[in-house]
Specification:
Layout lengths: L5 E3 L5 E3 L3 H6 L9 H10 L20 H12 L4 H8 L2 H11 L8 E3 H14 L14 H17 L3 E8 L6 E5 L6 E3 L6 E3 L6 E5 L1 H7 E3 L5 E3 L1 H11 L1
Antiparallel strand pairs: 1-2, 3-8, 4-5, 4-8, 6-7, 9-10
Helix pairs in contact: 3-8, 5-6, 5-8, 6-7
């Protein structure tokens, strides 16, 4: 980069003015821009040779809504595609995420560990996995339960699953989910405002983060589920 009047002609020849100060120093510092700086200027400030007008149609750029949504989704998995692949390419987890995304249950997109375990066990049996008693091999129900608990814990720590409780109101019979932050000894029903107590047998209900749901797909105005293109991008990035 020359700190003096200079130009580059169409034949890419550089010429510059030698000022008295430069002549006295007898030294000239020349800095060549790297590719990324040149590309950035070419995109944000394109200029036709001989013209002073800057065609800056891309000067003001920003992420689209879909890009922002995808960026935050990847951040749930620490932008680690190997970690993400463990779930997206696994039939059980991918089907579960899709099921919770399209869930029409009254309590919403939640699942308790008992149901999660039963679904996983069913999928593994369908794929030909044979389970034995604990003393006869490592493929047993105890180890399956431990593995699932570990994976659910990991998903909770990354906020893919949000733990809470689904409480059935004793006044209006509504089944409503309450987050851990909302969990107290007494619950005020979000429907009828009646008071309910947390019961000892209430299992933890895991809610799928809306970021995951929105990147899988959403329902149209007609109530039809429409897959989101971001998931195609995610699978492509994993493949690369």
């Amino acid at each position: 980069m020359l700190q003096t009047a200079s130009r580059v002609d169409r034949n890419r020849k550089l010429s510059f003015a030698v000022t008295p100060e430069l002549h006295e120093k007898r030294k000239l510092a020349l800095k060549v821009w790297n590719f990324y700086d040149v590309a950035s200027v070419s995109v944000t400030s394109p200029k036709i040779t001989g013209s002073r007008d800057i065609k800056n149609v891309f000067r003001s750029v920003a992420y689209s809504d879909s890009s922002i949504k995808l960026d935050r989704f990847l951040s749930l998995f620490n932008n680690d595609f190997s970690f993400l692949q463990d779930y997206i390419h696994d039939k059980f987890w991918n089907d579960l995420f899709l099921e919770l995304t399209t869930s029409g249950k009254a309590e919403g997109d939640t699942i308790v560990f008992k149901d999660l375990f039963e679904q996983c066990h069913k999928v593994m049996l369908e794929q030909g996995q044979v389970f034995t008693p604990r003393e006869d091999g490592r493929y047993n129900l105890e180890n399956l339960s431990l593995s699932l608990k570990y994976m659910v814990q990991t998903l909770c720590e990354h906020k893919v699953f949000l733990p809470g409780f689904v409480i059935k109101c004793r006044h209006c019979s509504s089944r409503i989910r309450y987050s851990i932050e909302e969990s107290k000894e007494k619950f005020t029903c979000k429907g009828c405002s009646g008071t309910n107590h947390l019961r000892a047998e209430n299992p933890i209900a895991y809610k799928l983060n809306s970021l995951v749901k929105n990147n899988y797909g959403s329902k149209s105005a007609k109530g039809i589920y429409v897959p989101d293109g971001n998931m195609t991008a995610v699978r492509t990035l994993i493949h690369l």
